[in-house]
Specification:
The complex is a heterodimer of chains A (307) and B (356). Chain A is mainly alpha-helical and 307 residues long. Helices cover 71% and strands 0% of the residues of chain A. Chain A has a single domain, classed as ABC transporter involved in vitamin B12 uptake, BtuC, CATH 1.10.3470. Chain A has twelve helices and no strands. Classes of the chains: A mainly alpha (307), B alpha/beta (356). At the A-B interface, α1, α11 and α12 of A face β7, α7 and α8 of B.
């Protein structure tokens, strides 16, 4: 394989991983606060529809991205109202959110089917972006790729190094104790859910603004569910979400390239590779983390403050 | 809250009520789609057919459609149409086959039409289109237009419809370019724009300069446009996604069939039939030939006319398989329809294996 193809494969892997990273790290924050929001797919698809619509009407990708974030937050607020405000079952509310999202997105995007936009410009730094092999990979991506890395770094720092991050983790580990200590459990959780919604909306926007710049119903094609699985796979640690997304995106992209290069392995085996890789990584990880459950202690449990 | 509920109930009732339309003397026709009408592909084209039917027979018919109907839970949707006075019902996806037959047994006075299936009954007809005829034409165009002699083919699933499409494509290409190679990537999905785009990228990286696709989104074509290469649309005219890259597109046009079937019901002449229409019947239409020199365009138009006139068959004998064995029945002029509908082998010239 010549270096150009290897660089192209690596670039494709990073872009394929980006929507998973953005949505995944948002859901990670939600789950670290003790809430399980299964509506990622629904929020993503709404973000994709609204993001594209806004960008198409205004001609600005930035406004599109902001609209995608806002619509994701709006969807998550609805979930927060049900699951946190009314302490409804989180699994049921999350699934309902996905179904609602798929329908809403289809309705909102109906007028924009068959329209297309140009993708957003990629970074270009004279000299650096022209470097052989690594130039385009490191210095020539679209803005969302850098944003994805920044988000992961930011969340990792927030959870580990800040007081607010500690509070959020405390709420997720044991909401009763956190409440007894005077922490405002429901408010913190609601904010975390909003952050998750913003990320999911943005990830959807990435699909319809950059990855394949058009709108089509169902275009997220299950990526929200993969992002959800990545959080578990990453044992709730931000950088592992990134690694997992690269692994998953990498296996998917590599098998397509392997087919195109006629390596001669059967297509079904190649298609199964991403999932085999995921299972393998899960086995390795859980063998290492045997000491105890790594999930946030209060994950998925509704909280009703007793007075 | 209670008031809200009352309003909601009233709304539901009135909606349901409208389905039981008063007998206006119009023929009620129902359509069941597997996808959203906004997919700009398969279901979209069926809905274009419905709209053409409504327009053509305006005051004599009334059409209804149900979209996003899951195949494994379609029986109640089909039954709902039958129960609400629809006399002609089109179910447009392969997986609706058994549910359609079941409902048809319970409603012997309603006529059903099932697309792409093979089971019929007294009141159930079947219909499909010869998409491989279009594939032969785009193969010829690709054979002329390629500079690298390498075509990228984004395929969905190894079912006969897709395999026969690949075979027709390469047979067309071989008539003008004996050195042509086709690289096939199975995306294992009908619709996932991101993955389809990645598959196209992989093919472009391997030296393909023309992208052909048998998946439903415009993403592979758009990838070709981005790379400054060429490609073909799928199911509908996708020119607006790739004005510089789209050479043509194989468009499904169901309107002629839908109008003729509705007319038969109006004239009380409907019978259960099996229809497999192609370019000659205008069920498969080629989008305008663009982005190519005049001689290639002329060739494509002549091939289209020859197929339409029945002078050219994409699987004209001999049809050699990869081992070089002629698959034709002795004395046959072309492969039989059944052989094409069940195709699970590649023709000579494809350097790959059908995934089993």
């Amino acid at each position: 394989m010549n270096p150009d193809i290897i660089e192209l494969v690596l670039i494709t892997i990073v872009t394929a991983a980006t929507p998973l990273v953005i949505a995944g790290v948002g859901e990670l924050v939600v789950e670290r606060s003790g809430v399980l929001n299964l509506g990622v797919e629904g929020m993503m698809i709404v973000g994709a529809a609204i993001g594209f619509a806004a960008a198409f009407l205004t001609g600005s990708a930035l406004i599109g991205a902001l609209a995608a974030i806002a619509s994701g937050m709006l969807m998550s607020a609805l979930f927060g109202l049900l699951a946190i405000g009314l302490a409804a079952n989180q699994v049921a509310s999350g699934l309902a959110l996905t179904i609602l999202g798929l329908g809403t997105a289809g309705l909102a995007g109906a007028g924009f089917v068959g329209q297309k936009r140009d993708s957003v410009p990629h970074l270009y730094i004279p000299g650096l972006s022209d470097l052989p092999f690594v130039g385009k990979l490191i210095f020539g991506q679209d803005p969302f790729v850098y944003l994805g890395v920044a988000l992961v770094a930011g969340v990792a720092w927030f959870l580990r190094r800040t007081r607010a991050g500690l509070t959020l983790r405390a709420v997720g580990e044991n909401h009763a104790s956190a409440h007894a200590l005077g922490m405002r459990v429901r408010r913190i959780r609601f904010l975390a859910v909003l952050f998750g919604g913003a990320c999911a909306g943005l990830a959807g926007g990435y699909l319809s603004l950059v990855y394949t710049p058009f709108w089509s119903p169902g275009m997220t094609a299950g990526r929200g569910w993969i992002a959800l699985a990545l959080v578990v796979f990453a044992s709730w640690r931000p950088w592992r979400v990134y690694a997992g997304a690269l692994l998953f995106g990498g296996a998917t992209v590599l098998q397509l390239h392997a087919q195109a290069a006629s390596i001669g392995l059967p297509g079904q085996l190649l298609s199964a590779l991403p999932y085999l890789a995921t299972i393998l990584a899960l086995v390795v990880l859980s063998a290492r983390d045997r000491r105890g459950s790594i999930a946030p202690g209060s994950l998925g449990a509704p909280f009703v403050p007793d007075r | 809250m209670k008031r809200l509920l009352t309003i909601a109930t009233a709304l539901t009732l009135s909606l349901a009520g409208s389905a039981f339309a008063q007998n206006t003397g119009k023929l009620k026709i129902g359509f069941v789609y597997v996808g959203p009408v906004g997919d700009f592909g398969y279901s979209y084209q069926h809905d274009q057919g419905r709209q053409a039917l409504q327009k053509a027979l305006g005051d004599k018919v009334e059409t209804t459609f149900l979209e996003n109907v899951p195949e494994n839970d379609s029986e109640r949707s089909i039954e709902q149409l039958a129960r609400t006075g629809h006399k002609l019902i089109f179910t447009t996806s392969f997986g609706f086959m058994d549910p359609t037959l079941k409902v048809a047994k319970r409603y012997p006075n309603v006529f059903f039409e099932h697309a792409t299936g093979f089971k019929r009954d007294k009141n159930v007809a079947t219909y499909s289109a010869k998409f491989h005829e279009g594939r032969y034409i785009i193969g010829q165009i690709a054979g002329k237009m390629t500079k690298t002699n390498t075509i990228g083919y984004v395929a969905s699933f190894p079912i006969p419809e897709v395999v026969s499409g690949i075979n027709a494509f390469i047979r067309g290409a071989q008539t003008v370019n004996p050195n042509i190679k086709v690289k096939i990537v199975w995306a294992n999905t009908w619709f996932d724009p991101g993955k389809e785009a990645d598959a196209a990228k992989a093919l472009l990286a391997q030296g393909a300069d023309i992208i052909s696709q048998h998946t439903d989104s415009a993403a592979p074509l758009q990838e070709a446009e981005k790379a400054g290469k060429l490609g073909f649309g799928q199911a509908s005219d996708m020119e607006r996604f790739a004005p510089k890259a789209q050479l043509t597109s194989i468009v499904d046009d169901w309107s002629t069939y839908y109008i003729s079937r509705a007319k038969l019901v109006l004239e009380n002449k409907w019978t259960s039939t099996d229809t497999w229409d192609g370019i000659g019947d205008k069920a498969v239409v080629m989008a305008p030939f663009k982005n190519m020199p005049d001689d290639v365009k002329k060739m494509a138009e002549e091939t289209t006319a020859a197929i339409a006139g029945g002078k050219l068959h994409p699987f004209k004998c001999p049809v050699l398989d990869q081992a070089g064995k002629d698959q034709c029945k002795p004395g046959a002029a072309a492969l039989e329809d059944g052989q094409i509908l069940g195709m699970n082998w590649y023709v000579k010239g494809i350097d790959d294996k059908v995934p089993q």
